[in-house]
Amino acid sequence: MSQNNLSPRKMAFLPPAAVVYLRRRAVEVVGLTLFALATALALALATYSPNDAALNVASAGPPANWLGTPGAWTADLLLQTLGLASVAVVAVLASWAWRIASHRGLPWYGLRFVQLVPCLLLLAAVAGTVSAPKQWPQASSLGGYSGDWLLKTSAPALQKIGLTSSSPLVISIASTVAAILLLYLLGIRFSEWLALARAGISGFAQ
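The structure assignment produced for this chain is given below.
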């Protein structure tokens, strides 16, 4: 009797084609989930009202935020923490969702995830160097408390070399690094940017 007859055969629960099909659908579900999260954050930020009940605001009235109380709390927390840099969170999530759901892939996703925090901090700091208008509803700057913290902690080191956080050189370098990190985080290739530009120009021309 051969050895193959003595060992139990491994029975495939599903045919290979079905496994591939289910894997693709699972990836698409992950992408659509990220896109739903990005859409929810965008709606929460777009319909933010400083009069809605939130972490530091007490209000007995119904929330004006389209997503209700959860949306009001989320938007207030994002704006307090990151300020205008919150928009980058939506952009990154939407881009990742598009790449995953369309099976374009997201290479080095671990590295991208790690770089998300310094990118958001730099964007918040750059936004914090701009004077907030009177209509700005937060006590922090346009970069939120994170931007204010980075500007404050970097001030002593900048003073040693004769610079301040509002120096054009510092703002230029921080903006450039933040833009490079953001472009890398989005994961959109140069050819894809060109395709998007052509589609936008064609749509505008029509």
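Interim note for the steering committee: The chain has a mean pLDDT of 89. Helices lie at 3-6, 16-46, 68-82, 86-101, 109-128, 144-160, 168-186, 190-205.
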